[in-house]
C-alpha cells in the first residue's frame, strides 16, 4: 500500500536547498464546480490531498522553510497546513486519538519548519508566483514544487534532485520525463547536449514546440531546483502573452550563465491538473491497497458486464 509520508516517518536529510516554494494561487478552473469552494490543492487522491503529498516530499528532502504562494480566496490551504490545536483537543476528547495523531503528523509545526504564506493577488503566471516568494527565500538554491504534478515513488523527486544537485555542475535543474511525440507540444522541452546517468545537460528549453521543431522529447514537469539568481532574472522579465511572467523564460536566461540540467526522476508522474490525471493517480494508489481490490476487480474484468477498466499498479 502506498502511504503519504508522515512527520514521524520521514527521515530528514541534510540539504543545502533550504527553501521550497509552493505556487498554490491558481483557481483550478478545470475542476469547477468542485473547486468553487475547495482549492484544487486540497482535492484528495483517495484520502490524501495533493498539497499533503507535496509537503511530505519537501520534508523528506530536508527543506527547512516552506513558502506557500496562495490567494486570499484559498484560506483553507493554510488551515490544512498549520497545526489546529483546538481540533486535536476535540478529537482526543471524543476518543479519536488515532485521527488526531494522523492530523498532527500531517501538519507543519513551527518548531520544526518555518511556514510562510504570501499572496499572489493577480494571475500573472508561474514566474510571478515564484517571485512573490523572493523576500522569504533562504540563501542558496530553492526548490519549486507544483502540487498538481503528483510524483509517486520510493524516493521523493525533490530529494533525488537535491542529492544530484550537489555535483550536477549546473545552476538550474528541472525534472524531466520522456513524453510521446503527440504530447511534446504541451510541454517545455529540453535541448540536451549530453547525458550523465540521470542528468541531462542542456543548452536551453523550448516552450511548447511542434514535434517537428522539438530538440528532444524530454519534457519539463513540476519540480525545480533553482539557483538563487533566479529571482534577479525574474525581476528582469517582461510579460508575455496574457501579461504573464514565465518561469521557463527566467530559467532559460540564467542557463546561459550558470548552466541547466534535466533530471530523470525515478517515480511516476501524474498530471493532477487534469481530470484524467487525477483519476489515473487515484486508481494507481487504490491498486496498491488490498482494501480496494474487490472494487477494482469489478471494473477490470469485462466478463462481469461491469466494464473493462485496466488499472496499472
TrEMBL record:
<protein>
    <recommendedName>
        <fullName>UTP--glucose-1-phosphate uridylyltransferase</fullName>
        <ecNumber>2.7.7.9</ecNumber>
    </recommendedName>
</protein>
<feature type="domain" description="Nucleotidyl transferase">
    <location>
        <begin position="25"/>
        <end position="286"/>
    </location>
</feature>
<dbReference type="InterPro" id="IPR005835">
    <property type="entry name" value="NTP_transferase_dom"/>
</dbReference>
<dbReference type="Pfam" id="PF00483">
    <property type="entry name" value="NTP_transferase"/>
</dbReference>
<dbReference type="GO" id="GO:0006011">
    <property type="term" value="P:UDP-alpha-D-glucose metabolic process"/>
</dbReference>
<dbReference type="InterPro" id="IPR005771">
    <property type="entry name" value="GalU_uridylyltTrfase_bac/arc"/>
</dbReference>
<keyword id="KW-0548">Nucleotidyltransferase</keyword>
<dbReference type="InterPro" id="IPR029044">
    <property type="entry name" value="Nucleotide-diphossugar_trans"/>
</dbReference>
<keyword id="KW-0808">Transferase</keyword>
<comment type="similarity">
    <text>Belongs to the UDPGP type 2 family.</text>
</comment>
<dbReference type="GO" id="GO:0003983">
    <property type="term" value="F:UTP:glucose-1-phosphate uridylyltransferase activity"/>
</dbReference>
